[in-house]
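R.M. (postdoc): so does anyone remember the format we settled on? I'll just put the structure tokens first.
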């Protein structure tokens, strides 16, 4: 790793409350152009993968809002937050009374971002950098915000989520209308209008739905 993640994150983000989840503060890029619009060559030069952790994506904001509004969803349960990014959903779960929360992301920078964000919100979260897709998960409930943006990724996630649901785990996803969401396999839970930045999305408000995978 060419750049120290903690030093870089502290220098290039601000502690900001996402607009739809004002109870939580995260180290986020205050202007998307600073990080997200860097060229691939610039990112490689500093050893930085695409910084998904630096933004509060609509699916994650919606799912975090749902958890905080319905704390019984996670209270006293073991929670697994898949593709956690900034850790927003994991933090919301812990604040809502989860017994234990594991946040997972294959991006090594996400680990530093999640741990910094957890400290900023006074919660304790475990982090795992392993690739869990297709693997067993030791949890009562699985959370995933904004993961159906890529066809290949979605094709791997759908059978995995279905299997986890068939094992008795609740699988909840937050999605702002991504192209590869498998609606036919889902049950509606809630819907939100989530403010986002136009630098990342095609509008300033994304209609974000919370879904439950059918067992």
């Amino acid at each position: 790793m060419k750049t120290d993640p903690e030093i870089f994150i502290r220098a290039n983000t601000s502690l900001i409350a996402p607009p739809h989840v004002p109870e939580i503060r995260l180290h986020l890029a205050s202007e998307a152009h600073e990080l997200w619009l860097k060229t691939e060559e610039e990112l490689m030069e500093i050893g930085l993968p695409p910084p998904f952790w630096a933004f509060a994506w609509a699916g994650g904001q919606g799912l975090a809002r749902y958890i905080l509004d319905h704390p019984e969803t996670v209270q006293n349960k073991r929670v697994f937050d898949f593709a956690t990014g900034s850790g927003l959903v994991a933090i919301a779960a812990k604040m809502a009374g989860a017994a234990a929360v594991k946040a997972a992301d294959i991006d090594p920078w996400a680990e530093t971002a999640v741990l910094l964000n957890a400290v900023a919100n006074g919660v304790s979260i475990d982090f795992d950098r392993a690739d869990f897709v297709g693997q067993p998960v030791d949890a009562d409930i699985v959370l995933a915000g904004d993961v159906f943006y890529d066809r290949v990724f979605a094709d791997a996630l759908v059978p995995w989520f279905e299997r986890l649901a068939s094992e008795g785990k609740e699988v909840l996803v937050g999605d702002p209308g991504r192209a590869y969401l498998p609606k036919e396999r889902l049950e509606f839970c809630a819907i939100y209008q989530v403010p986002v930045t136009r630098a990342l999305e095609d509008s300033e408000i994304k209609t974000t739905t919370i879904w439950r995978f059918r067992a």
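R.M.: ...and that's the designed sequence above, right after the tokens. Also worth knowing: The helical segments are 5-12, 32-35, 40-45, 58-69, 88-95, 108-120, 151-166. The longest strand covers residues 186-195.
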